[in-house]
Amino acid sequence: MKISDEAFEILGFAEEERMSLYKCTTSICNMGEMKFKQRPREEQAEADGTAECEKVAFLLGVNAKDLMTAFLKPKVKVGTEFVTKGQNLSQVTYAVSALAKSLYNRMFGWLVARVNKTLDTKVKRQFFIGVLDIAGFEIF
Questions:
Q1: pLDDT tens figures, 79-95
Q2: Where is the Myosin motor domain (predicted)?
């Protein structure tokens, strides 16, 4: 982390930006540790402990109970009304994974844009280095 912090400092990242990146990254990692279980004889999942959810909520700056409710019983629009819908274990797991992937995607996109903005010289360039990675190209 020390090396990352030094690199962010060299690139001119403010302390608030660095802390936000660390909090977001940590919250994504903690989402992978959230545990849920299927209620017996029901199609409803429930939390198997709340410690990880509380950590994630704290890091993201949201209410832990609201976050857990959003995963377990999200509000769905039916016609013109909103109703709460109980989720089963696979749906809850999918929702947590989707949120983690979305957060990572947005964070990484912001990070790339921020680094590009910092490194932009505003001078017309004649040369550049590009990297092309074709997945599976080496398999014939």
A1: 999 999 999 999 999 99
A2: 1-140
Among 3.30.70.890, 1.20.120.720, 1.10.3720.10, 3.40.190.10, name the CATH number for the domain at 2-119.
1.20.120.720
- Looking at residue 37, its amino acid is K
Domain boundaries, the chain: 2-119
What the block records as the tokens of 101 is 């992937």
Q: Is the dihedral of CA 83, 89, 93, 96 positive or negative?
A: positive
- pLDDT tens-digit profile of 24-82? 999 999 999 999 999 988 889 999 999 999 999 999 999 999 999 999 999 999 999 99
Q: What is the pTM of this model?
A: 0.80
